[in-house]
Amino acid sequence: MNIEVMIYVYGAVCVSMIMFNFVYNMMLKWSVPRMKRRREKFERMVMLQLSEIRRSGEIDPRHAAVLRRKLCHVNDLMAFHMVINEGDAGKSELAETYLRQIRPAILYLALVYRDKANDKAGYFTYFLSNYTAGRQMPVDSLQDILLEYVRKENLYCRFNALKVLYHMANPEYVVRAIKIADDGNVFMHNKLITEGLLSYSGDHGQLISQLWSEFSGFSNHMKLAILNYIRFCSGDYKEEMYAIMTDRAENIELRLSAIRYLGKYYYGPARDDLIGFVLDGDMSRWEYATVAASSLASYPGQEVVDALKEALHSGNWYVRYSASQSLEHHNVDYSDILDITAGNDRYAREMMMYRLESRKLQSAEV
Amino acid sequence: MMDAYKQFFEYVGVFFILYMIGYASFLFLAVTVGSSMLYQMKRRNRLKSELLGEYYVPVTIVVPAYNEEVTIEASIRSLLALEYKLYEIVIVDDGSKDNTSKVVCEAFNMKAISRPIQRKVPCQPEEAVYESYEWKVPITLIRKKNGGKADALNMGINASKYPYFICMDADSVLQYDSLEKIVRPVLEDSRVVAVGGVVRPCNGAEIKNGRVVSYHMPKKIIPSMQVLEYDRSFLAARILFDRFNGSIIISGAFGLFKKNVVIDAGGYDASTMGEDMELVVKMHAYCRENGIPYRIRYATDAVCWTQVPEKMKDLCKQRRRWHIGLFQSMVMHRRMFINHKYGLVGMVSYLYFLIYELLSPYIEVFGILTVALAFWVDLINVPFMILFYVTYVVYSAILSLTAFFARVHTIDMKLTFSDFVKAIVLCLVEVSCLRMILAWIRTTALFGYKKKKHSWGRIERKQIQFK
Question: How far apart are the C-alpha atoms of B73 and B103, rounded to whole Å?
Answer without folding.
Answer: 7
